[in-house]
């Protein structure tokens, strides 16, 4: 015969007991214990302390109830064939277990790339619910105005990989892109030796401040150190493999004496495909950005000579630390790692 459950102890505290001792209504107690809106923080803490003292909740439940809700962070990244950007998005998606100490919940959304209107609209939409937004900025007044509006509402933003000038963003996480461009120029010039010839650049878009700064750094180092090499201009491929392929084919046809290519953005596989089709994969020096499975393969077979990269894991965690510091009123960059560029060659791949 099934035994009936043990009766509840007669002296067990009830909601009305908590309300009486805390000096609030039973409705307020119910909202506080169930973490519903409409309860001031001071009242919430008072109710929880009374509930714990009366043994209404187990200690673990009381601790859980009193713990602040996790901050909601959103990463907005451009969609496309840039595999490094995709790796950064995947890092956000798969890092939940590493974020527990920071009491945050992160999600990533890929949006239309190279469209400032779409980026500004997405910032405004997510700003209605998110506690912080990290995004790859486009240099445009619409984006700047959206960031300003979010700052006025108390929603901080952090730019990642590419910054936004004269804006209200809280911080930038990424490389010194001018230095990265100088590094690329130095490597390409040294690889080419004393040869004279043409050198070309392919960017995703100069709407990215990062790409504009890399171009400037590259041009300066070429003028300073490699006067025999002539830079023949810059083409935009929008970090798309097919567009980069088409741009490279045109460059190879237009400049038979082309001896170097610097891919400022992503989708280096498109550049490599055109070099192979022309049989010039080991004759044209090729430097690019972002260590990914495809650029690793290009380094191994010698199509690429060097890759300048940064850690997507470090970039994501730096963003999280900055948002947590802002929330907890700590120094903005407490615990934030310095972003370092790494030069990867075939012989030192991690």
Structure overview:
- The chain has 14 helices and 11 strands.
- The longest helix has 17 residues.
- It is of the alpha/beta class.
- About 2% of the residues have low confidence.
- The radius of gyration is 27 Å and the shape is elongated.
How would you describe this structure in keywords?
six-stranded mixed β-sheet, five-stranded parallel β-sheet, alpha/beta, Rossmann fold, 434 Repressor (Amino-terminal Domain), single chain, 350 residues, 3 domains, 14 helices
In short:
This protein has 350 residues and is α/β, with parallel strands linked by helices. 45% of the residues lie in helices and 17% in strands.
Highest CATH level, the class of the largest domain: Alpha Beta
Arrangement of strands in the largest sheet: 7-6-8-9-10-11
CATH topology of the largest domain, by name, is Rossmann fold
Measured by DSSP, the beta-strand proportion falls in 15-25%
Mean pLDDT: 91
Summarize the SSE layout with pairings.
Elements: H1 15-22, H2 26-33, H3 41-53, H4 59-66, E1 71-78, H5 83-93, H6 96-99, E2 104-111, H7 116-126, E3 132-135, H8 141-152, E4 157-160, E5 171-173, H9 177-192, E6 197-203, H10 209-225, E7 229-236, H11 241-254, E8 258-263, H12 268-277, E9 285-289, H13 293-300, E10 306-309, H14 312-327, E11 342-344
Parallel strand pairs: 1-2, 1-3, 3-4, 4-5, 6-7, 6-8, 8-9, 9-10
Antiparallel strand pairs: 10-11
């Amino acid at each position: 015969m099934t035994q009936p459950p043990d009766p509840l102890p007669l002296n067990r505290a009830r909601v009305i007991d908590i309300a009486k001792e805390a000096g609030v209504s039973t409705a307020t107690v119910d909202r506080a214990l169930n973490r519903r809106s409409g309860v001031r923080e001071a009242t919430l803490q008072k109710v929880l302390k009374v509930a714990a003292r009366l043994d209404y909740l187990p200690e673990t439940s009381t601790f859980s109830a009193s713990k602040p809700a996790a901050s909601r962070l959103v990463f907005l990244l451009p969609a496309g064939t840039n595999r490094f950007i995709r790796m950064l998005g995947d890092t956000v998606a798969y890092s939940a277990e590493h974020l527990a100490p920071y009491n945050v919940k992160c999600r990533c959304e890929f949006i239309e790339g190279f469209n400032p209107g779409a980026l500004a609209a997405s910032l405004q939409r997510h700003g209605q619910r998110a506690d912080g937004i990290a995004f790859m900025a486009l240099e445009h007044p619409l984006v700047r105005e959206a960031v300003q509006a979010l700052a006025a509402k108390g929603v901080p933003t952090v730019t990642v990989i590419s910054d936004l000038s004269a804006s209200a963003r809280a911080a930038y996480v990424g490389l010194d892109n001018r230095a990265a461009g100088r590094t690329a120029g130095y490597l390409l010039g040294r690889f080419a030796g004393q040869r004279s010839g043409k050198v070309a650049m392919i960017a995703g878009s100069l709407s990215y401040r990062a790409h504009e700064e890399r171009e400037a750094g590259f041009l300066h180092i070429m003028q300073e150190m490699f006067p025999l090499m002539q830079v023949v201009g810059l083409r935009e491929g929008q970090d798309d493999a097919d567009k980069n392929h088409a741009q490279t084919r045109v460059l190879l046809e237009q400049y038979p004496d082309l001896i170097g290519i610097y891919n400022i953005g992503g989708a280096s596989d498109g550049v490599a495909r055109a070099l192979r089709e022309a049989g010039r994969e080991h004759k044209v020096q090729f430097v690019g950005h972002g260590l990914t499975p495809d650029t690793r393969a290009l380094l191994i077979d010698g199509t690429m000579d060097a890759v300048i990269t940064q850690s997507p894991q470090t970039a994501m965690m730096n963003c999280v630390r900055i948002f947590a510091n802002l929330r907890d009123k700590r120094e903005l960059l407490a615990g934030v790692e310095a972003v370092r560029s790494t030069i990867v060659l075939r012989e030192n791949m991690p």
